[in-house]
Amino acid sequence: MPVPGPSPRQPSLPSPAARPGDRVPGPAAAPGALAGACGSGTPVPTAASAPPLVPGPPVQGAGAALARLLRGPSGLGTAGLSLVRRAEPAAPAEPAAAGTAIPGLYHHPVPEPDPVRVEEVSRRIKAWAVEEVELYPPDWEDQFDGFSLGRYMVACHPDAPGVDHLMIATRLMAAENALDDCYCEDHGGSPVGLGGRLLLAHTALDPLHTTAEYQPQWERSLHADAPRRAYRSAMGYFVREATPAQADRYRHDMARLHLGYLAEAAWSETDHVPEVWEYLAMRQFNNFRPCPTITDTVGGYELPADLQARPEVQRVIALAGNATTIVNDLYSYTKELAGPGLHLNLPVVIAEREGLPVRDAYLKAVEVHNDLMHAFETEAAGAAAALPVPSLLRFLRGVAAWVDGNHYWHQTNTYRYSLPDFW
Ligand SMILES: CC(C)=CCC/C(C)=C(\C)COP(=O)(O)OP(=O)(O)O
Ligand SMILES: [Mg+2]
Questions:
Q1: What mean pLDDT do residues 288-308 have?
Q2: What is the pTM of this model?
Q3: 88 domain-assigned
Q4: Does pLDDT of 21 surpass 90?
Q5: How many Å lie between the centroid of ligand 1 and the Cα of residue 185?
Q6: Could you tell me the pLDDT band of residue 399, with boundaries at 50, 70 and 90?
Q7: The domain containing residue 288 runs over which residues?
Q8: Which residue's CA is the closest to the ligand 1 atom numbered 11?
Q9: With a 6 A CB cut-off, is 2 part of the ligand 1 pocket?
Q10: 308 CB less than 6 Å from ligand 1?
Q11: Is residue 81 part of a domain?
Q12: What is the mean pLDDT of residues 57-61?
């Protein structure tokens, strides 16, 4: 969502594109993100019921017992649900949609998301955005449509029982991106004062408990801008479906996300380019994690809190979040290069801190992603074997499906992303 003019968030270090001898793509200015009016609206909630998990065909590449544990559902949109390592790439399911996968990127193609669900989620999310929360002004409609929220969430949640459940994830995804755009990025965002804005928006997820005198002021504040309206409304729908433990898990993951935004902003204010491992630590927080970790709520079941909190499950979640987020760094590389200043992403940080030409840095970032993906799959298979509890197995399959759907969305969102010319 680059807009003309300098952003106070961007440090003024030279672009890696300036390195002599490097061939760097020159994409047209990438289209904008899901953007918010960042200015003034109101909300309300729904429900639905849980589905059975359909048994699927046997998987290959693991012992029989493990294979049985990891067996995923069958049917449209479920191909990504197996936790067993698959050959790369899994050619037969390559999507027909536009967009080229990054060469050498370890990923699992998914079938086209169910078009009927996509259409209905797209219709409902636009109605919510326009009528319930005034998420964006009319002239940003193309950017909202180009984000393809419906396709994204249907691809990521193939085991959702229906559209009501998909809407839980889709509203949150819209809200999360509106806040990022309006508070952090180029739609009015800035590192200056970000902490205060984030904290007040966080109270739309994790309510203020105060005295009668101050309560009305706080309640009014939740309608003051698009991110807060969206957070408040999306969270309202979510908590109606979620158990208290699931809602608390989401609040915790959003606090992690906000902490990551703050670290990124702090480095930007001082033009600091972190070391690669430091960048990866920041990006573990400024991360898609809040999205795959609601897969059980969206699926209409619950992974119990004591299982979710186990270290081996936490490691699986973190690795999945990190792999999905580095996918963003890779697919959004040219968009971020075209913006003002230096936008940190993994290829840029590797180039800066390890002195590599941009192409080599990009290819190294692909390898970092692939290592994260392999670690995720190995650890997920290990957790499934050690804890063969049905809710955990389904959760792990749901996270794997989210990883695959997220890759699919990035690959096919040619409105938003384009690849560098490195191959
Ligand atoms: C949906 C969600 C929880 C997002 C939080 C963090 C975030 C916005 C990303 C991981 C996407 O990264 P980025 O800000 O670089 O997005 P674009 O490259 O502009 O698409
Ligand atoms: Mg990005």
A1: 98
A2: 0.83
A3: no
A4: no
A5: 10
A6: very high
A7: 114-208+217-412
A8: 328
A9: no
A10: no
A11: no
A12: 32
Residue with the larger pLDDT of the pair 13 and 288: 288
**Region of poorest pLDDT, from 179-193, 303-317, 353-367, 390-404:** 179-193
Instruction: Quote the pLDDT of residue 82.
Output: 53
Which ligand places an atom closest to the C-alpha of 283? 1
181: Cβ below 6 Å to ligand 1?
no
Domain tally, the chain: 1
Q: Is residue 42 part of a domain?
A: no
Instruction: Give yes or no for residue 148 CB within 6 A of ligand 1.
Output: no
CATH assignment at residue 122: 1.10.600.10
Nearest CA to ligand 1 atom 18: 332
- Say which ligand is closest to the CA of 286: 1
The verdict on whether omega for the bond into residue 274 sits within 30 degrees of 0, i.e. cis, is: no
- Could you tell me if residue 91 is inside a domain? no
The reply to whether ligand 1 has any atom less than 6 angstroms from the CB of 291 is yes
